[in-house]
Design goal:
- The chain has about 800 residues and is an alpha+beta fold.
- Helix content is about 60%, strand content about 15%.
- A hairpin with a 5-residue loop joins strand 6 and strand 7.
- The longest helix has about 80 residues.
């Protein structure tokens, strides 16, 4: 087929060559205007290349005349004439240079060439008049000869076109005729008019040469086209040949590739006739334990177990009746060589009408790995779900065993848990005999004492395929294996934490079987899940015990604080009361003023200690969740006014100005009055404590962007370092030892304030800058606001 295609290509190429050759002869006589213009440009290009140095002839020749001949005119006139000749020649030289730079074929240069040649002739002709000396016949004859030489040269330099030929030579010829006639000398007239036939002959030669060049260029152009067409025809022929060869090679490659895909692909292909007789089976069927040659000629249903034959018959009938591919079917298939169960995915396509196949195409894919992975993931999810829902450890172990049995057909699973000494604590074996757990418990000490136990505690995998051998494992293990009907065990320790053995995962088989790489991966995954489960349950038990211990300690702390509250408050009240009586001298003078001052110090110290005890009890109640809010509708402006009045004496001691700010129409708030008063008192107390004398404190209420209210206290005190802003709101936290000693306090004020704000659904924000002051804001939620008409007040509470 390829050889015939090549012969046809050669015949077509020969015909095209003959056609182009005859066309080239005809085209040499029939040339369009575009081709004529191209030829003319080619002639001009030849002339430019051949006579590109011609312009330098006229200035040189003119300079020679000036230097060798006599003239009736002054040197200045001769110099002007020479400059004109030189300028014209220079113009011509620049034109040729421009043509060479721009491109000879970029445009038609005949008109510019004609003008330059005319300019050169016209500027040179006055030389006859300048050097014509009638008294010197020899000089006149020299001029006539020079003029005729110029005419001859002009004929050859302007030969590109008729225009340039006449324009370059006619002025010089006319000047020679005029000079001969004007001289009146017979010899000069004879020379000038006698040159006319020679001039005509030169024109004839030039015209013949130009025509010959035109024909030569025309033929060259035609030959170029012919060569171009021949090259194109050759390229097309070569391309067609290569395409044919490529198609031929591709067909062979595709055929080999298709055969390789069919034979070595992941899927196995089986073709049967309408009745289910196997016509073809690919080599991929060997992966399922079947031999292609043995399958051919036999019915497909004879290749599968009895319980799957109806399913095969139904699939074939469906494929014969339908034009579309049958739905994918997943079914287990036992390997006839190894006896292992494989999961396959099969589909049937009706290709009875396809002459290339003429049968039912069955595509079979081994999906055992996928099914195993799906089963593993499903059972791992079930285990984790039971773990999350609080199922017992025994239930989770049973779920692990059932999942392993489904993932590994023909196996029976058991999960063992041991304590720190390696003693058996749990045995989950749902598919084993009822007395299996008791039997394992009886022989476990024997196993633990031997190599089996040491390998288990070292975290090593154990695979034994002859459990019923008395010689290898002794009578105890052999009798146990015979009673349980097991021959092989795959034993994988369960590790938790840093490699601690918490138990083992075992798979039992009735026959001899070694684990594959996939089986080992499954065992490791199952033991990892078991380890996570055991570790989680033990962590939960430890957490439960720790929680119970913490609750017990918390109850003890609460009881202790309650007792301490009673035991400390009673004597403190007596100390505060008696010291106040002594300070005020209610029953008479105490004597000297020193005793009176001592009584005042005792009274103040008692008050401070009582305040500290109250703060500790409050924070304890809040942390224990025993602080209950007694909510009512509150006017926050009244709480601000009450708090300012209560802290005014301490502010007056330091000459501090407390500025109260309240915008109009502020809503009421649903909250605990005592808690809100304590919030504001804590903030005001801190502001007074850390603001220097003659300072200012601003107490205000404003609406926040969330729609709620913000209660704030701002001072111009020392400020808090940025790195301590989070620390100061924690219980018992204080910024700097020196500051704490100077001002005292337990460090519970801001912590209690934040907790009380959060109990109302709010939050506390703290902004501070060293040397500029601090702003503490309590943000109250909009959900607790009660809209009401209220007229705000703005006043300044100053000392004294």
């Amino acid at each position: 087929m390829v050889e015939k295609a090549r012969e046809r290509q050669k015949e077509n190429a020969s015909a095209r060559f003959r056609t182009m050759l005859s066309g080239a002869r005809a085209e040499s006589t029939n040339i369009d205007d575009g081709e004529k213009s191209a030829i003319r440009r080619e002639q001009i290009a030849s002339m430019v290349h051949a006579y590109r140095h011609f312009p330098f002839l006229f200035p040189t020749f003119s300079a020679g005349l000036i230097l060798t001949l006599e003239s009736r005119f002054s040197f200045d006139i001769l110099l002007i004439w020479w400059l004109g000749v030189a300028a014209a020649s220079l113009t011509y030289a620049r034109l040729t240079d421009h043509i060479l730079k721009q491109g000879l074929y970029s445009r038609d240069w005949s008109e510019p060439m004609l003008l330059c040649l005319l300019a050169t002739d016209v500027t040179w002709l006055p030389g006859i008049y300048l050097f014509w000396v009638p008294e010197d016949p020899l000089q006149c004859l020299t001029l006539m000869v020079a003029m005729l030489v110029v005419v001859t040269l002009s004929v050859f330099t302007g030969n590109a076109t008729r225009k340039t030929l006449i324009g370059a030579s006619a002025p010089a010829m006319m000047a020679a005729l005029i000079a001969g006639a004007a001289s009146g000398e017979p010899i000069f007239m004879m020379v000038s008019f006698g040159f006319l036939p020679a001039y005509g002959f030169l024109l004839h030669i030039a015209d013949t040469t130009r025509r010959s060049d035109f024909e030569t260029l025309s033929l060259r152009l035609s030959n170029a086209k012919l060569i171009e067409d021949l090259a194109a025809a050759r390229d097309r022929s070569e391309t067609a040949r290569r395409n044919a060869e490529t198609a031929f090679r591709r067909s062979h490659r595709d055929e080999a590739q298709f055969r390789s895909l069919v034979e070595k692909g992941f899927d196995a292909l089986v073709i049967t006739d309408r009745d289910g007789i196997v016509k073809f089976a690919s080599q991929g069927i060997r992966e399922l334990g079947y031999v292609p040659e043995e399958m051919q000629g036999r019915h497909l249903r004879d290749q599968v177990p009895e319980d799957q034959k109806p399913q095969v018959d139904e699939a074939l009938q469906t494929a014969v009746a339908a034009e579309a591919p049958a739905d994918l079917a997943e079914l287990p298939l036992r390997d006839p060589t190894t006896g292992k169960i494989r999961w396959i995915e099969a589909s049937a396509i009706n290709l009875l009408d396809d002459p290339a196949v003429s049968g039912i195409l069955i595509n079979i894919r081994d999906i055992s790995h996928r099914k195993r992975t799906e089963n593993e993931l499903r059972h791992q999810f079930n285990v984790l779900q039971k773990l999350a829902t609080g199922a017992s450890l025994a239930e989770i172990m049973i779920q692990l065993a059932l999942g392993a049995e489904e993932t590994t057909p023909d196996s029976r699973a058991a999960v063992f848990l041991v304590d720190g000494q390696g003693d058996l604590t749990t045995c989950a074996a749902p598919s084993m005999p009822a007395d299996f757990a008791d039997s394992i418990a009886n022989i476990w000490p024997h196993l633990k004492a031997g190599s089996f136990g040491s390998a288990t505690m070292n975290g090593e995998q154990i695979v034994v395929t002859d459990l019923q051998s008395i010689e290898m494992h002794g009578k105890v293990v052999a009798d146990f294996s015979i009673a349980a009907d097991i021959q092989t065990i795959w034993f994988q320790p369960i590790l938790i934490g840093k490699g601690t053995v918490a138990g083992a995962f075992a798979l039992y088989f009735r026959d001899n079987r070694w684990p594959s790489d996939a089986d080992n991966d499954f065992l490791r995954g199952a033991t990892n899940i078991a380890g996570i489960t055991i570790e989680r349950r033990r962590a939960e038990q430890n957490l439960r015990r720790a929680t119970e211990a913490a609750e017990l300690a918390n109850r003890a702390k609460t009881k202790f604080l309650a007792n301490m509250s009673h035991e400390l408050r009673t004597p403190l009240n007596a100390i505060i009361g008696f010291s106040e009586i002594m300070r005020e001298e209610m029953f008479g003078p105490v004597g000297t003023d020193v005793y009176k001052n001592y009584a005042a110090d005792i009274h103040d110290s008692g008050r401070h200690l009582l305040s500290v005890i109250d703060d500790i009890l409050d924070i304890s109640k809040i942390e224990a969740g025993r602080y209950t809010l007694e909510e009512s509708e509150l006017d926050l402006n009244e709480i601000i006014a009450w708090s300012i009045e209560l802290t005014r004496p301490k502010a007056q001691e330091k000459r501090l100005n407390i500025c109260r700010e309240a915008p109009p129409h502020m809503p009421h708030f649903m909250g605990d009055q005592r808690a809100l008063r304590q919030i504001l008192l804590n903030l005001l107390s801190n502001a007074i404590k850390f603001t220097p004398e003659d300072g200012a404190i601003h107490v205000g209420l404003e609406k926040n962007p969330e729609g709620g209210l913000t209660l704030y206290v701002r001072d111009n005190g020392a400020g808090i370092p940025p790195e301590n802003l989070k620390e100061v709101v924690e219980p018992f936290a204080q910024v700097g030892d020196t500051t704490s000693r100077d001002h005292g306090g337990t460090g519970l004020g801001l912590s209690i304030t934040r907790s009380l704000a959060e109990m109302h659904g709010g939050s506390l924000t703290l902004e501070s800058e060293l040397g500029c002051g601090t702003r503490v804001a309590v943000n109250l939620p909009a959900s607790r606001l009660i809209q009401t008409d209220q007229t705000p007040k703005t006043e300044t509470a100053a000392n004294g």
